[in-house]
Specification:
Blueprint: E1 3-7, E2 10-13, E3 16-20, E4 33-36, E5 39-43, H1 50-56, E6 69-73, H2 79-88, E7 92-97, H3 100-112, E8 116-120, E9 136-141, H4 148-155, E10 159-170, H5 171-174, H6 180-189, E11 195-202, E12 210-217
Parallel strand pairs: 6-7, 6-9, 7-8, 9-10
Antiparallel strand pairs: 1-2, 2-3, 3-5, 4-5, 10-12, 11-12
The chain binds S-adenosylmethionine (SAM).
Length: about 220
């Protein structure tokens, strides 16, 4: 099998994206497990994870590394969170999720992996988790909410200066009557002065409903 390292703990195995499985033998979303020499990898599905799609589409700035502390807003059932957990290993993933039904699945994931801290909260109310989340190296936000830029700004209080925020904008959640491009520009404009845009990545052909932005806190 051909193994190519893309970033720390992120590989292409015969052309498919993968992360080394932190919990050998355990699947999270029925993904394929692949053994190469002494390492077991989990294949990372770009149709299920926008971070995987962004990496496959050439994202340059990968700030999630071994040992990173990551604030992940909009964790859902933990599909992408689980791969972030594989990457950071000894770091921590603070996973914020509003929906209780998603949190139930996320808690199962947290039982198996001790580097994920589940936080059941509305991400607009950062005071609910300020006592557990300190300063983080990286932020990742993927929420299906109306005020996406406002949520990012509220949570950026936890991000170290100069830190990277991965910001996924879902135009339909913000304003279904506007063209997606218009919504992306409107949301990014709200971040002026707080973040500098480093990359804008289209997620086609894996996803056509979102813009994936890489931002640096200024
Ligand atoms: C598209 S899903 C996230 C998928 C996930 N990032 C992944 O890749 O596996 C969006 C999530 O945002 C959550 N959400 C929406 N509004 C929120 C809010 N105000 N605070 C926290 N989570 C929220 C939803 O419950 C949903 O689980």
């Amino acid at each position: 099998m051909a193994v190519k390292r893309l970033f720390e703990n992120v590989y292409l195995i015969d052309g498919k994206l993968a992360t080394p499985n932190l919990k050998r033998g355990k699947r999270v979303y029925n993904e394929e497990l692949v053994q190469v020499d002494s390492t077991e990898y989990r294949l990372w599905n770009p149709y299920r994870s926008k971070l995987a799609a962004a990496i496959l589409n050439g994202m340059k700035n990968m700030s999630i590394k071994e040992g990173s502390d990551v604030l992940y807003v909009g964790a859902a059932t933990g599909t992408t969170v689980s791969h972030v957990s594989d990457i950071v290993k000894g770091g921590s993933v603070f996973a914020v999720e509003l929906a209780e039904r998603n949190m139930r699945n996320l808690l199962e994931l947290c039982d198996a992996r001790d580097n994920i801290m589940p936080i059941l909260s509305d991400a607009r109310q950062t005071e609910n988790y300020e006592s557990v989340v300190g300063k983080v190296d990286v932020m990742y936000q993927d929420v299906s909410a109306k005020e996406q830029a406002a949520i990012l700004l509220a949570n950026s209080r936890f991000l170290k200066e100069g830190g990277i925020a991965y910001f996924i904008i879902k135009s339909q959640s913000v304003d279904i009557s506007k063209r997606p491009k218009e919504v992306y520009e409107q949301e990014l404009k709200l971040l002026e002065g707080a973040f500098k845009i480093e990359e804008r990545i289209s997620l086609e052909p894996y996803d056509s409903m979102h813009l994936f932005a890489v931002l640096r806190k200024v």
